[in-house]
Write a structure and sequence with these properties.
193 residues; mainly alpha
Length: 193
Amino acid sequence: MDRRSFLTASATSVLVFTWPIAFASSAHIWPGKTPPFLHSTTTIDPGLSRRQWKAIVATQEHIFPSDMSAAPPSPGARDVNAKAFLYAVLSDAHRDKEDRERVKSGVIALQKLCVDKYKKSFDQLDATQKETMLRTFENMPGGTSWIMTILGYVFEALLTDPVYGGNPNGIGWQWLEHQPGFPRPSTKDRYFL
């Protein structure tokens, strides 16, 4: 199975089995401005440090990299706004706190593993070291679950309507040759407002 077929099947599963997500904002992730898609008034601090966010973003980009040499070019985690999407999800006060706790405990465990082996944070490792750490981490209790959680949020960012913050300009839809449903939501009729 090629990457595109795998991602299409996986992303379809995420859409079918995942409930709608609400969004929030943060000044320390986007200094000086608030992304236009984040307007929730029921937000909380997800409780992650800058170093932890850097490790999460590095994980997203490692497990879902872009490949602009492919035909068609495949977007990566950065291209689909996976960081902003995950921050918005974790900042939503209506989400179960278990989501925040799972993400936080996982990144703490991954960081400890990296520091113990390389004396560096995950985001400071080269690609080979990152792969080694993720392969080691997936065999630890909760490791596979954490990696799949992070990947699941990347898939959601890939496939969501752009009005919710991921999939800018429908980049994921274009790549998967997906025709979105109609009518599409506007900023005034999103389900989380």
